[in-house]
Amino acid sequence: MKTFVPKEADIKHDWFVVDAEGKTTGRLAVVIANVLRGRNKPTYTPHIDTGAFIVVVNVEKIRLTGNKEEKKIYQDYSGYSSGRTETKAKDIRAKHPERILVQAVKGMLPTNRLSRQILTRLKVYAGPEHPHAAQQVQELEFNG
Hints:
Blueprint: E1 15-19, H1 25-37, E2 53-57, H2 68-71, E3 73-77, E4 84-88, H3 89-95, H4 98-107, H5 113-119, E5 122-124, E6 138-139
Parallel strand pairs: 1-2, 1-6, 2-5
Antiparallel strand pairs: 3-4
Helix pairs in contact: 1-4
């Protein structure tokens, strides 16, 4: 019996849309990371990109559990000495609400070149509108 490895021509990247309104950040990020990698498909191969495109809308209404709104700190480093900045989650939600979900999904992907390529297929929008209607996006069911 031979091992099946999907060819580039056989891989179909579907488009899914997720409404993040009222959803918990971490639980939603797990589902999105798995679909981006293609782990929901029977042809999943860890070293080949078999995943789908994900469009996430209403990210400004995503939920952080507990007191993470006040206590969670996002760190950024510019590369220069004393170039580290710390920002609270409530400040990031006010300026760039998309970054909360993108950082959560990025943390759940492996750290390699393939995951950087996979992350480009994640499209995140703060409001309910998105410009990807032409791709015939399907609703991704998620209970959590």
